[in-house]
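Contributing new records

If you add data, match the layout below exactly. Sequence lines come first and carry their own label; structure lines follow with theirs. Keep one chain per record. Anything else will be rejected by the validation script.
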Amino acid sequence: MAKVNIEGDEGGRVLNEISDGIFFHSVIQGRDITILLPPQVAPALSGLPNAVRTTFIGRDKYVNELIQGLAPDNSERPQLAASVAAVSGLAGVGKTELIVQAAFRALKQPGWFPGGVLFVDLFGYDPDRRLSPERALESLLNALGVPGEHIPADLQDRTRLYRSVLAAFAEKGRRILVVIDNASNTEQVRSLLPTDGVTAALLTSRHSLDVEARRYELAVLDEQASTGLLRRALQQACGVCDTRVIDEPEAAAAIARLCGGLPLALCIAAALLADTPARPLSSLAQDLEAEHFRLDELCREDRAVRAAFDLSYRHLGQEQASLFRLLPLNPGLDLSTESAAYLIDADQRQVRRILQDLKRAHLVEIGHTWGRWRLHDLVRLYADEQGRLHPDAHQRETARARLFGYYQETAAAANSYLKALPDTRSSRFPDRNGALAWLDAERHNLVEVATAAPRLGLPETTTALAGVLAEYFDHRRYFDDWIVVTNAALKVFRESGDRKGEAAASHDLGSALEKVHKLEESVNFNRRAVTLYRQINDRRGESMALNNLGLILEVVGKLKEAIDSYSRAATIAHEIGDRYLQAAALGNLGVGLRQVGQVEKAVDIHTQVAALYRMIGDQKNEATAVHNLGTALQAMDRLSEAIDAHTQAAAIFHDLDDRHGEAMAQNNLGIALGRDRQLQGAVDAHTQAAALYHEANDLHSEAMVLVNLGLAFEAMSRLQDAIDAHARAAVIAHKIDAAGSEARALGCLGATLQKMGRIKEAVDAYTRISALHRESANSEEEGRMLKFAVILHNEWWLRAHFPNSAKSDT
């Protein structure tokens, strides 16, 4: 057995006394090492960097959790491992400052760390200053008071001695906090971590290290904390009289956004502003807006965002660096593992491993779900810059073409599941839900690809995506995306002189514009589509455009023109033998005929159309046809048949996950049930419809259904429920500036309040309707509502003052 007695002389130096051991120079080999500390030791245990409290903001949650884990009596800490917390994160995110702040606060806790603190910066990402584990241990042992001549040369023995000294301090009630900053890998840091289960340690790294520690991934600051950091930094440098952040809140928010919430970037921005106190924040924000110069702007003296990223980038392997340089070619906010595989033309398993390596290095982040990856905005700029400068930059265009081709082909495959004919479906997805899930996940990327492709020399990608995404955008009601993508395609077609493509894009744009109630523009684009198809003798296209034109004409109230347009579309479709187009035109014709009172003919047509779609195998349009049949049957008072039709339509829409279609069918089912005096069923159907419209974010329709729900409640004499429903409808309609819907809801609300004898509230409702008519310059309705409100007000006053007076006739 080797016994090592470490005792101090009068000067406080540590002396070793070793017996019964085997010695090889300074190496100690033995089973047990006993360390006896002197009564007073003066090791260097106060080497923490300064804590910058002024600009330390937005990290209270992390600090509190770190301090909680450092408590000496923390029963929740695993007893088999040291009390170690490892903080990782992107370069410049504030890891060092976080652990320094936590260390200072922990040291102030009475009795927590009477032995003091050890600090070492490993410079893990700087090849010129990087500390080896041996050198780091030598520094730490010297700080603990161990003379250099007694420090072993071998890493293993240095580790044993270091851990024994820490344990001895802990046993004597002199617990030490070890702070290890900027480790690059597990090998560099493993020997420095205490293992006695009492000594505590804080560790930082840009990588997520595989050590026995409680891990924390430090995120960037949110906007509020970012602007707070700017304000504090400027006032620290220039005094409290610097109110630029307060005076220019929008510019401050812009700087915070452009710095991506990265504390290093924000501190550099604050320093640049402090250099010139007269410079407005808007000036710096404007300079940072230019993406290709943003990293140049975020540089001051010895601090630069680019330099911080450089150290992380140089640490990457060849595979990781290659993919990292290509990731910015994806124009969206994030991308899937499958998409990334197309960038380097590799197997997904291999790419997933590379991405996980980049994640551990905190150069990529997990997207909104597992399997998706994103870059911090500044890291994206840096990666793109490296990609342009690297010798293999010529490969970027090939990689981009592969990625864009993947999006184009997969979107077409997904779209095949939304089309009518089952035999046209791709084998790319297991089913329709799988196709929709992919489209939902990639929607933002698809829109960005479609709009970016022309300037990148890939205009065919734009036109192809515009064609295959129209059905999806319509189904999910992403009308703004539909308009953006179709406009991009229309520009390509016009510039290339492709009249057929221009006709198709005009047709789709007309449909999308109608959905957002831009009716005049919609009519114009649809007329343009009809003209172009006729000019190039594309009869199928002409039939489609005529059908679409009829829909818009119907919306603007030109029913005779709409019916004529539908009839021409159906005739052309019949002549060219296109049953699908014929069914579509006939279905719309049936709706138009019902509206002009030709109800029996409409019922016959909708019955025929439903059979056609059933034969074709188009369930969605079959559901629409059955729903339209139910509406026509209601017009003929064939309520039982109408209820059956709407119930069937709602079930089909539900199976197809078409929430908007299901809501429409449920609403009309509620109307039919209400007319048939099945009032509870009507309430249930309208309630379901309102919930579905709310989920689909169709506020116009939600407000309309809530009024219907209120009327059903009123028919059941549930007047308070009716009032609640009408009031909710009015609030929603007001929120979306739908004056007509708001007036209808307020009218129903006023009538129900009047029934309950709540005359003053009814007067308020009618007065609000009058104000709405005033805003819309409808003086006749304004006067009528005012007159009605005055009469009701007088009735309320008479009742209040003369309770036995007679009621008015209003």
